[in-house]
Structure formats: structure tokens, C-alpha cells
Amino acid sequence: MSARVRAPELRGRGWLNTGGRDLKLADLRGKIVIADFWTFCCINCLHVLDELRPLEEKYGDVLVVIGVHSPKFEHEKDADALAAAVERYGVHHPVLDDPELDMWQQYAARAWPTLSVIDPEGYVVATMAGEGHAEGLARLIDELVATHEAKGTLHRGDGPYVPPPAPETALRFPGKATLLPNGNLLVSDSARHSVVEVEPDGETPVRRIGSGERGRADGPAATATFSEPQGVCLLPTHVAEVAGYDLVVADTVNHLLRGVRLESGEVVTVAGSGRQWRAEVDDHAHDALAVDLSSPWDLAWYDDKLIIAMAGIHQLWWFDPIKRTAGMYAGTTVEALRDGPLAEAWMAQPSGLSVSVDGTRLWVADSESSAIRYVENGVLGTAVGQGLFDFGHVDGPAESALLQHPLGVCALPDGSVLIADTYNGAVRRFDPASNQVSTVADGLAEPSDLVLTPSGEVLVVESAAHRLTRLAPGALSAAGASTVDGPRHRTERKPTDLAAGEVTLDIVFTPAPGQKLDETYGPSTRLVVSASPPELLVEGAGTGTELSRRLVLNGEVTAGVLQVTAQAATCDADVEHAACHLTRQDWGVPVRVVDGAVTRLPLVLRGLDA
């Protein structure tokens, strides 16, 4: 906090949540400012929005949060799409539209999300990458308040946030839908924090379950509360009879699963502690109500379990409603695309699930890798998709086809699968028999789920249009499909040049103010390293407890990505009943192997690095 680095001026294409006013740093002088560099596809960025809400409430007269939207996907560069996302996720602070990442570069951000703290005199005093910084930020804000109140440079009062007009639609950013036994549909009305039963026409409301206010209260339909619910899944009848509820809702922002009794609409919490998962990876069964979850996004009954698309930690989990236990099913928490046995595969924000008609295959929309994956015979495979940074709208052979951040899938009776290709505004179809991808509908507003009715009709949850839409008759026939050869995109991140041979990886960790490393339950730190392709690393892959590691890079592999996961356990210092904390960060570091390049790679786990 001794460095005096003047914060770069805030400039972009436009502002949201300011009543049409352009803000300058001079307008914020006297306030503590947190610049939150985010992109609305990123689950870690959404976690940070939730972490910042209590700080905005507690320090509302001294703190101003500025969201700087620096997009990854092409769709996220669209100004209307950004405005929709700001409403969808309940962003109640000013947002600067930074479509060309100018501010991202000015503030030297390297990862989504990144937080820069600016003091009341306009200087950057801290930068933090990743999530999990709420407690450290609170301590830092307290220090800044004390310092600048004493100096007379802190100005209390209202900030520049101006709420937009309240919209009037029957649904608001619906996320997922499922058919009910009576022929109606149940839709997660995500931005209104509830689930809604509608008639088979997809339009006429029957009842609302949830008060519509953000919260996590169980109880009758009229008073129960959710927080941005997504996936909904009916339980098999024999399971529901024992469990005592008929369907399960993925209560995403609460990090919970909620059970709903259809007859009464009563809601009960069935899995999740309400805390976000920040633990060790294990293969054990846990008490469902004691285990921590992380942004459950969709649900499906498969392999005699309820499978959970755990978007927040890039895994699939399972939940047993009868035994009331839960645990990890697939993935390692590394965010990337790698096939293989379930316990070793890599995923990237799985957000949609559907089971084949014969029950043998679980289809997965792996949104951040713009991929369609599948689970079969204990192995995770990839049908369509090439990785975290390759996306577009291209049909044809599956190995060359491209999607853009798909959020939903729907298995069809013929063995093919429909894809809610969200950021392309399209419904796509993958046919395993021909290994071809085609487009069956486009011009849609962020489709996020698909439902096949008993009559063979397909309903699309058109999330950004706040409605359910029917596909045109014949859209699923060969004549109704089209072949699109649209743009191909690749998000290029500047690679780090490293020398062939020995390289030192250093994880720079500074505990938050008032905390210290905690070894009560064993080593306080953990480091996991792998590479894509694996041949990039001659030595250094694997898991250890030291935050520094000797790597040996293969000089015959010119480029690749180092996958690094680091975590550190801390506790409050000099406190009688010290609280425990776990800080965790994942990096995918693009590298080039270049003769004469540097031999040290430093990464900041928790930055107070002004």
C-alpha cells in the first residue's frame, strides 16, 4: 500500500446503470473504488458479483464498485447482450463497456475476474485476481476508511448507481424447463428467483413457486425463496415416494439443491450447506446437507443418481435423494477440455445435461469450451468442440464444427442431440450416426434449454427474449436443417515466453490483512501442475505442498498451456475463535518455449500487489 500508482482514466464504449451519464475518476474522488474486470460468460466472475454484494451493502456510503466488462466471446461484445446480462445477474452498480479490452490492458489485468482497488485520492492500492477475496477486501476497506477519514480525503454519501426502469414480462431470463406429469411445464424464472408452472402452450402461467425475492428460505410456495435458480429435474416416481418430494431445483447462486412437492408447492433444501465449495478433491460420499456445492447449473437423472452440472468448479457431481448423500462424479476442477476416465477428465463450466432415450449416454453442454461432451461407460468424451479459446458458428463434420458457449442439450429418440447454442442464438443438431453438425434454427435470443414434448414438438427456452418458443414444424427434418459456414474465432491470450529446460514456477501468496497460514489440519498450501499437450512438461507435473516447483520444459514442444491450481489455507490471526479460510485459483497459462527466454514463472494467488 506504499506504492503510489495513479489509476488510469475510465474510458469505454458506454456506461450502464448511470442514468446515461459518463463517469470519470474525478467524479469518484473521495470514494473507495473497486474496478471489477469481468465477462458475463465466466462463472468465477459471477461468483465475484455475489461476493461484492454484501460489501456494497455494508460500505454503501464510502464504496463504489465499477464493473468493467471485458469480453471473451464475440457475443459478449454486443452492447444489448451486455445490458441483458447486467439485468440478468442483478448487477446494481455502474458498468463500463470495454469491448476491445482497452481498460483491461490499462489496468494490466491477466485473468477473469480481476479486481483493482482505487483509494479516495485516485491511486491503485491493490490488485486481486480470481475469486474469494471478500474478507480481504473488507479489511482493506476498513484500513482505507480509517486512513482517509483521518486525512479528510474520504467523502461519504450516495454513489453514482442509477437503477434502470423495471421491466414488465411474464418471465424474466428463464433458464431451464422440464415437462411435468400433468403435461404442463416447469420453468426456472431465474431473474425473478422462482420457478413457474405454465400450460403446454408455454405461455399461460398456472402458479409461481417462490416469492420472487432473492433468498434461501424453505416453506410454502408463496414464501419460499431462491437465488437465480437454473436446472429443474423430476425424480423417478419410486425415488420421489421415498424422498418426499417430486423434483429438484438447482438453486444456483445459493449453492443449494431444493426439493419441491408438486401437490403443495412446498420447498425444502435437500443438498448443500449454502457455502461455496473451496475444498479438496475427493471421491467420498458426503452428507448431502453438510457438503459445499458451487453454482449447480443443471440436473439429470442418470446412472441411478441425480447428476449435477457443477458449473462453478468444472465438474459433474451426484446426489442420492434416498441415502441423502452427495459427491463428485466427473472432473478434477481443472478448467480445460480433456477426455478420459471420469476421475481424470477436464471440463469447463458444464451447464446443460440430457440423457439419451436408452439411458446409456449423458450429454453435457460444456459451455466455456464451446463443446458438447458425453459420459458413457465411465468415460468422458467430446462430440463437438476444440477447447477453451476456439469458437464460432460452423456446421459440417463434428471434428471441425464450432459452437459458441452452449448452455443446453436435448437428446432425441433417434440418438442425435439438439444443442442450445446460446451465444450464436441458434439451435444446432449433432447426429452421431453421420458425425455431422447442422443448424435447425437461428435468430434466437440466447437459447439456454430445449424440451421435447410427447407429440414431438421442441420448445426452446429463449432466455434473453423472456419466453418459450416453438421450433417451426419440420425444423428437425433433413430438409429443415441448414449448413452454416460462419466465422471462426479464437481468443488469443498473450503467451508467456519461457526457456526450454529448467523453469521455476513460483506462486506468490500474501495472506489477507489479519490472516496467517493455517496448518491445523496438515500442510497449508497445495499446488497441482499439468500441461496441454502433456509432452510440454518433461518434469514437474503432479501434486505437492510447496508453492514453488522446478519444471522442465520440452524444447521440442514449441507452445502449449500450463494448467496450474494453487490453494492456501489461512485463519484469522490473534483471534480467540479464529475463522478458517481457503484461497484457491486456477490458471491456464499459454506459453511459448523460446531459447534465451526467462526461467521463472511467477503467479499471484492472492494479490495485494499494487
Can I get a quick summary?
This protein is mainly β and 610 residues long. Helix content is 9%, strand content 40%.
Explain how this protein is built.
The structure is a single chain. The chain has 610 residues and is mainly β. It is 9% helix and 40% strand. The chain contains 5 helices and 45 strands. It has a 7-stranded mixed sheet. The longest helix is centred in the first third of the chain and has 18 residues, at 134-151. It starts with a strand and ends with a strand. Keywords: Repeat. Residues 1-146 form the Thioredoxin domain. Residues 199-223 are annotated as: Disordered. This is NHL domain-containing thioredoxin family protein. It holds the Pfam family Thioredoxin_8.
Topology:
Layout: E1 5-6, E2 14-16, E3 32-38, H1 43-58, E4 63-69, H2 79-88, E5 95-97, H3 102-106, E6 114-118, E7 123-129, H4 134-151, E8 174-179, E9 185-189, E10 194-198, E11 205-209, E12 232-234, H5 237-243, E13 247-251, E14 256-260, E15 267-271, E16 286-287, E17 296-302, E18 305-310, E19 315-320, E20 325-330, E21 340-341, E22 350-355, E23 362-366, E24 371-376, E25 379-384, E26 390-394, E27 396-397, E28 408-411, E29 417-421, E30 426-431, E31 436-441, E32 447-452, E33 458-462, E34 467-470, E35 485-490, E36 496-498, E37 501-509, E38 515-517, E39 525-532, E40 537-539, E41 542-544, E42 548-553, E43 559-572, E44 580-593, E45 600-606
Parallel strand pairs: 3-4, 4-5, 36-44, 37-45
Antiparallel strand pairs: 1-7, 2-5, 3-6, 6-7, 8-9, 9-10, 10-11, 12-13, 13-14, 14-15, 16-20, 17-18, 18-19, 19-20, 21-25, 22-23, 23-24, 24-25, 26-35, 27-31, 28-29, 29-30, 30-31, 32-33, 33-34, 37-42, 38-43, 39-41, 39-43, 40-42, 43-44
